[in-house]
From TrEMBL:
Signal peptide: none annotated. Keywords: Carbohydrate metabolism, Galactose metabolism, Metal-binding, Nucleotidyltransferase, Transferase, Zinc. This is Galactose-1-phosphate uridylyltransferase. Its cofactor is Zn(2+).
Length: 387
């Protein structure tokens, strides 16, 4: 039943209000500490089609990777006009996904790549047959192997406005979204079958964004992603404190672009992209759920400065992927440190780097801009940012 449940007060003075959409999907409102919104929220009264069956994933036996085949994603909205924005609050003429005005809203994706995992955990969702049977099951190689893509995909709306990005939000709103990321990371990590949680933001049509509304997503995977598996292998081949050693190495070099009490941002030694910066906490933290209020408070300002500095490089907004890498749910949590990687293909005001033969086919990257030169430009740009 899509009724509003009792509010829950989180860190930073953020208040969460839980409800469900007309088809049983979860919806969470996160109110700013200084919100002007009232306590009431509207009820979703749309007549919606049944939720699609959970996608399936197939194993590529040559790499061991699992590929989710999610045909329902073909039906998602593509660059709708403002009056039909599916992430804006509902109006009599716009039956959007969110019934009420909001500060920050998080809801289950209507056409997910992963999940739902269990019928009893997700309202009206169909139960998933043939789910993965643990990490050992997924590690085993088998020609023609198929599993159900259990997990969950959520949309995180940073603002009710039709256009913008994380970087266009206020410091207060930035802090609210960070609190939502931490809250959802903890909740998704507790779901059966979830092995890794990944918050991210795609920004700009050059990245493939189909909605200009300021939003990001959270994927809860049924496996440990290939990128993280490679990191875990490298840690095992070197030392358990590899990520601390990387941070120390970068802090002693010339590629640091911003440093605070709890976080340091830098262009990595072997940057792949024309614009690439990493942000890492000074202490070992596996994911957002384990960060302190002080770390979240500083991050709210640091993150905005980074994103606005990237936008200040050129006269028009810069496309990017902001990817929050977190430790797996049940493995390597004492060695894999959460960190942010922001990457952009923009190599000049009117030029993009396309992944062609060497990068796309062989994974053999060729950098266009020396990381030290990129760091100098980013430092200069970020120094002029005012919050």
């Amino acid at each position: 039943m899509n009724t509003l449940r009792e509010p829950i007060t989180l860190g930073g003075g953020v208040v969460r209000r839980d409800t469900t959409l007309a088809d049983g999907r979860d919806l969470f409102y996160y109110d700013d500490p200084d919100t002007t919104l009232g306590a009431d929220r509207g009820i979703d009264q749309r007549a919606l089609d049944p939720r699609p069956a959970t996608a399936t994933m197939r194993q590529d036996i040559l790499t061991g990777d699992w590929i989710s085949i999610a045909a329902a994603r073909q039906n998602r909205a593509f660059l709708p006009p403002a009056e039909l924005d599916p992430l804006s609050p509902q109006t009599p003429t716009n039956p959007s996904e969110i019934p009420s005005r909001y500060d920050v809203a998080v809801f289950e994706n209507r056409s997910p790549s992963f999940g739902p995992a269990l019928a009893e955990a997700h309202g009206d969702a169909p139960e998933a047959p043939n789910p993965p049977r643990g990490l050992d099951d997924l590690d085993a190689l088998g020609l023609g192997s198929v599993r159900t893509s259990v997990g969950r995909c959520e949309v995180v709306c940073f603002s009710p406005e039709h256009t913008g990005s994380f970087g266009t939000q206020s410091v207060t709103r930035s802090r609210t979204v960070i609190e939502a990321w931490a809250d959802r990371t903890a909740a998704l990590s507790a779901l059966p079958g979830v092995e890794q949680v990944f918050p991210f933001e795609n920004r700009g049509e050059a990245i493939g964004v189909t909605l200009p509304h300021p939003h990001g997503q959270i994927y809860a995977y049924p496996y440990v992603t290939p990128r993280t598996r490679r990191l875990i292998e490298n840690i095992s081949c070197t030392s358990p404190d590899l990520m601390q050693r990387v941070l120390n190495f970068e802090r002693e070099g010339s590629r640091v672009i911003l440093a605070g009490e709890h976080w340091t941002a830098y262009v990595p030694f072997a940057a792949r992209w024309p614009i690439e910066l990493h942000l890492m906490p000074h202490r070992h933290v596996p994911d957002f759920a384990e960060t302190t209020d002080a770390e979240r408070d500083e991050l709210a300002r640091v993150y905005l400065r980074l994103l606005r500095g990237i936008d200040a490089l050129y006269d028009t907004p810069t496309p990017y992927i902001a990817a929050w890498h977190q430790a797996p749910v049940s493995a390597s949590r004492d060695t894999v440190r959460m960190h942010l990687e922001i990457t952009s293909p923009r190599r000049a005001a009117d030029k993009l780097k396309f992944l062609a033969g060497s990068e796309a086919a062989m994974g053999a990257w060729i950098g266009d801009i020396p990381p030290e030169a990129a760091a100098e430009r980013l430092r200069d740009s970020i120094e002029g940012v005012q919050l």
